[in-house]
Amino acid sequence: MNMSKLHSAVNEYNQVGVSSGVEQASPHRLIQMLMDGAIEKVAMAKGFMERNEISQKGGHISWAISIIEGLRASLDKNAGGEIADNLDDLYDYMIRRLVRSNSENNPDLLDEVVSLLRSIKDAWDEIPTVANIK
Q1: CB 45 within 8 Å of CB 62
Q2: What angle do CA 90, 114, 78 make, to 5 degrees?
Q3: What is the DSSP string of the chain?
Q4: In this structure, are residues 87 and 120 in contact, taking their beta carbons and an 8 Å threshold?
Q5: Model's pTM, two decimal places?
Q6: What is the CA radius of gyration of the chain?
């Protein structure tokens, strides 16, 4: 994992509104926190979309895109190999779906992105158990 890129992603996460614990968090935990933040922002955007609150919808979609871009930038493609390449492609896909959802006002696309993020996060959450990380 590229630590300078992770630091940039952490700065984006700080904008999510959760600063407690960031300084002491491991790189693994920071990624979990970023994923949680992106999921939260997409879910909030869906609520704004359903209430036709266009400005807030767009702002939260943009925020989610920024967080996903931070996750994408933190990938270490040299060390991560094919997995990092696949995640890069998936993050790119999610960003494109979020942009489309915003322009089409399509909540189904937001649900798709949340589902993808949760799948990645579920796998990420298993790493400490498998790798015996605390």
Answers
A1: no
A2: 25
A3: --HHHHHHHHHHHHTTT--TTTTT--HHHHHHHHHHHHHHHHHHHHHHHHTT-HHHHHHHHHHHHHHHHHHHHT--HHHHHHHHHHHHHHHHHHHHHHHHHHHHT-HHHHHHHHHHHHHHHHHHHHHHHHHT--
A4: yes
A5: 0.81
A6: 15
pLDDT value at 89 more than 70: yes
> What is the mean predicted confidence (pLDDT) over 88-96?
98
Number of C-beta neighbours around residue 98 at 10 A = 24
Cβ partners under 8 Å of residue 80, min gap 6:
1, 87
Q: CB–CB of 64/36 below 8 Å?
A: no
pLDDT above 70 (res 3):
no
Read off the pLDDT band of 10 (50, 70, 90): low
* Residue 106 Cα to chain centre, angstroms: 19
Q: Given a cut of 90, is residue 2 above it in pLDDT?
A: no
Tokens of residue 54, six digits: 């266009």
